[in-house]
Amino acid sequence: MEKYVEVFKQQYPFTMLTESQYDRVFTDATVNSYKKNQFIFHEDEKEEESDIYFVLNGLAKNILHRSNGKQLSIRYYYPGDLVGIMMMLTSGEMKFSVQALEETKAIRFKRERFVEIMSENQAFSNIVLEGISNLMKSLYHEVKYKTSELDDSSYDRDLFKQRVVSYSETPTIIHHNASVTEAVKMMKDEKAGGLIVCGDDQELIGVFNYQDLILAYLQEDFNGRIEEYLNEEPYAVNDQDFIYDALSYLKHNPAAIIPVLHKQKVVGLLRQTSFLKMQNSIYFDLRYQIGKANSLEELTSLSPRYNRAFQQFVAQLLDDNMFAYDICELISSYNDELHKQILHLAEEDMVEEGYGTPPINYCFIVMGSEGRKEQAFSTDQDNGMILDDYEHLENKGEIDTFFKIFTEKVNYMLETCGFPLCSGGIMAKEKKWRKSLQQWHTSIQEWLEKMDAEEIRDFTIFMDFRPIVGDFSLAYDLREFVTQKIQRSLTLQQLLMKDTLRFRVPVQPFGRIHGTGRSKVLNLKKGAIMQIVNAVRIYTIKYGIDDVNTIKRLETLRKHERFHPRDTENAKLALHRLLSFRLKRNLQQIQLQETLNNDISVMSLSKEERKVLRESLLIAKRLQQVLELSYNRNRVV
């Protein structure tokens, strides 16, 4: 270490330190070596454990872990770069991992000593802050362009439509007469990278941040008032402004905090990290927490049924008029992550209890609304398991026992997380829904030959299966087998038609809605949503389409000219509106701590809402009538 101490005295920006400061910053510093692919530090580390690193040689990269499981590299670190400053300035809010790409050596400085020297030496501090500017600007570009599913022009158009209120965070406000010491304490207690300074009526006066704090410390003005360190005209935005302007400002002022105003009063703030939830995040931090959860209790607190932050996120999307079927897909994807982690915990339990790891490959599948990615808050479990063929193995009895115990764990863990057990028993813990691939083939063949009206509903739920954990090739094999078999089964199509027509859409041709009781209660799922879903499914079966999601099925039918474009758009609109009613009702039931269901009181709706509901029901009824005409004409679909 001593040889580095002497060398660094001649290295910029350490040449700007006094002899005393130089000795102190190297006190307790260590030289660490890292092998290729080894983490210099990981974002899972606690804030108090993070330090500052100076790269001596080698190459490292900065990694952001995306909610979809992919890793995104924002920049590289070369010899002479400081690592960890940005995390320090954002009080741990902006967290990344840094990984060595080759043999790398770095000096690790104690963060407390580094901050102490920065507070004493303004010139050194300015150089350090300037050094991270490029990284912050890189983050701006990453935020703006990280959605791979959209081209640049469409994403820019989307930015112009977004409002500040959608991304505003709760502000940390301090009175302008407060002292620097009081500001430091508040920043520490609230873990805030900056404070919004207001007057008596919460009107904006300025912003107090780390650079202001360092300036105050340089002047040893600990009891001075913070308003003496504020810029005269702070940049601010109104809550209904377009987000693009704020993003443009942060691009050129990456360490800034932007106050958000409503009628001249401070109601929120924006910073670089506010935009990490733009597009496809599905609450990035919540999904990331699911992946880190080590207990069922942690997962339960993160489930949609019990997590208030996720519920608020969904409510915001509804307020922003996002298509409800896209929101349901978002919820389903979030639930997929919960399922994956539950299966992981269940596997760990099996090992701890002496059963070992899974003896053969398996694929856990979800069915019904989760399989179609159309899940709301009020839904029970519909799942199963496909096992690799094992009947020829000598230990097949042990394999049966393993997966019986394993699936029971999974189903009861899911119940704890807010997914009720299926009243019809469609769960992986039941032998009927846990079979080898060959057994599934045999069962499907028997179903198609002997199926009666009682079993048709179970088979309808099964047809919408989708793999989420395990060997997906097992599910793909089964999907191909099922698609071919059911397309040729006219008997199955007739049974599906009869089952669909059993439940009539509760609306008359002129729009009068039928409901039960004085408040005219309507079951949205049975009365309308499933009529659209079932009708579209029957058409996809007829034409051998293997899509599972209803919207994708509609688009495929339109593309192959099996559905008129107008009918396709009408069905999508009706599904969006019905799912919106369902989601809003579920959120209301959660808030009132009521039992979740799919019932809605027609009388509780406004005149405009009843009009929207009536139009949606009429579209569902038209789909049902078209199917019925086709059925009566051909006796098949």
Automatic annotation (TrEMBL):
Residues 167-228 form the CBS domain. Residues 45-118 form the Cyclic nucleotide-binding domain. Keywords: Activator, CBS domain, Repeat. SUPFAM superfamilies: cAMP-binding domain-like (SSF51206), CBS-domain pair (SSF54631). It comes from the Bacteria. CDD domains: CAP_ED, CBS_pair_SF, NT_GlnE_GlnD_like. PROSITE patterns: CBS, CNMP_BINDING_3. Pfam families: CBS (PF00571), cNMP_binding (PF00027), DUF294 (PF03445), DUF294_C (PF10335). This is CBS domain-containing protein.
